[in-house]
Amino acid sequence: MRGRATLGIAMLVAGAVGAQTLDGAGITALLTDRIVTYENGATQRFYPSGRTLYTHGEPSWGEWRVEADRYCSLWPPAPDWDCYDVSADGDAVNFMDDWGNDFPGTLSEP
Known about the structure:
Elements: H1 2-17, E1 20-21, H2 24-31, E2 34-38, E3 43-46, E4 51-56, E5 58-67, E6 70-74, E7 82-89, E8 92-96, E9 102-108
Antiparallel strand pairs: 1-7, 2-3, 2-9, 3-4, 4-5, 5-6, 6-7, 7-8, 8-9
């Protein structure tokens, strides 16, 4: 019962700020062929091919995909994918890693 109460409180808080956690289809629809501008001024473009370009000074190419309702990215030479929960409210988007770190940004068209 305690778990349900905690979940209910979390849903109320999320609803109060307007952001909704997205499922896999929602993540794909939100990010495909869009650009996210992060608070540090970096930009990241999500290509339909699964490639992604992160630019903050020098450009860096990686790959992206959606897996188990999470956004996942791979940045060579790293061998492992990192995955994030994604929430959105209008053009505001937030990526949260497994340690609770937030990476907020704003969506735009290319």
